[in-house]
Design brief:
single chain, alpha/beta, Rossmann fold, six-stranded mixed beta sheet, three-stranded antiparallel beta sheet, 9 helices, elongated
Length: 332
């Protein structure tokens, strides 16, 4: 326990001399029934109510002095070390992710796979990004699985305005994720990037250049192709999704380009099919050499100022009201 302003406690030393002198000089101006001056020749015991008023006066002064000195207690949280990695999961939200070769569609299947990953990975700091023709940070780095799961649930087709950000910018998504990981880099702590997409790059930076950046930064790159084996039409809310040429979009996945991107970044490419999960991929990620993330020690301070202030108010009412009623001294 400590005090913010301990010198106020010195006021306690002057209370008793002041009170003693006040009682000596106090006549009996109020003529209360049954009242005797404490210094009169006759020794007389005070009643319980009189003693209570005197005691409340002292306690009130004591609480006021304590309140001025601002007492507090401090508790220290132990430093915590968590084994894990830093991970960015970058998710494709292009229009083709509405294709129904995964049930109910590719987007919902991707959300389910990522949510399954979040059940594991204790100690990992994970961030979420989404992309189509542009890239956006959907949730910053955190170890809070619940918040990440809620963030994933909030993803939908309208998360990105496809009228202004249509397309598939794989290269931009890779560079964006590299910058995210670089901003939280801790020496010797492993970092990984999982990019989930169903298409070829159509916008932005050359993904080969972006993949080299992953390799140079020592980031473990995993690219997941999420699509069925046959071309399928794209529907949005039950209506055919039309491309720039006015025809309904038909989507299929060409593995070759994604494989090359993964190889260029020293990473691994996986082809996900209906019914598979990310277990095999995530198992490999979780087997990466893990280094501890040490959290800063936190010291919490709990102040008693509010409790003391309320208590002083209650005792003031007892003293003020009790002195004018119980002891028959009229309120001044």
């Amino acid at each position: 326990m400590g005090f913010e302003y301990p010198w106020f406690l010195l006021l306690l030393l002057v209370y008793f001399p002041i009170r003693k002198n006040r009682l000596k000089e106090l006549p009996i101006p109020f003529a209360p029934l049954g009242w005797s001056h404490p210094d009169s020749g006759k020794k007389e015991e005070f009643s319980f109510t009189v003693r209570m008023v005197f005691m409340s006066e002292f306690v009130l002064f004591f609480l006021l002095v304590l309140g001025l000195s601002s007492p507090y207690i401090e508790t220290d949280r132990e430093s915590v070390k968590l084994e894990g990695i830093d991970l960015v999961i970058s998710m494709d939200l292009s229009a083709s992710m509405q294709a129904a070769d995964f049930k109910p569609n590719r987007l919902e299947a991707m959300k389910e796979l990522v949510t399954e990953y979040l059940q594991e990975g204790r100690g990992n700091r994970t961030a979420l990004s989404v992309f189509s023709g542009k890239v956006f940070l959907h949730y910053p780095f955190t170890r809070d699985k619940y918040s990440l799961q809620r963030a994933i649930e909030s993803i939908h087709f309208q998360t990105i305005n496809h009228n202004t950000a249509g397309g598939t910018a794989i290269g931009d998504a890779l560079l964006f994720s590299v910058d995210l990981l670089d901003s939280v880099k801790i020496e010797d702590r492993k970092q990984a990037l999982v990019l989930i997409t169903d298409g070829e790059n159509t916008e932005g930076v050359d993904p080969m250049v972006a993949a080299k950046a992953c390799l140079e930064k020592g980031i473990h790159l995993y690219i997941i192709g999420l699509a069925g084996s046959e071309p399928v039409p794209v529907f949005v809310r039950g209506n055919p999704y039309l491309g720039a040429d006015g025809n309904q979009v038909i989507t299929s996945l060409e593995d070759a380009s994604l494989k090359l991107i993964a190889e260029e970044g020293g990473g691994v490419y996986y082809r996900a099919t209906q019914g598979e999960s990310l277990r095999s991929i995530l198992k490999e990620i979780n087997e990466l050499e893990k280094h501890p993330l040490e959290l800063n020690q936190v010291r919490e301070k709990y102040s008693f100022s509010y409790i003391l202030s309320f208590s002083a108010l209650v005792l003031f009412l007892i003293y003020y009201w009790g002195g004018g009623t119980w002891v028959r001294r009229p309120i001044r």
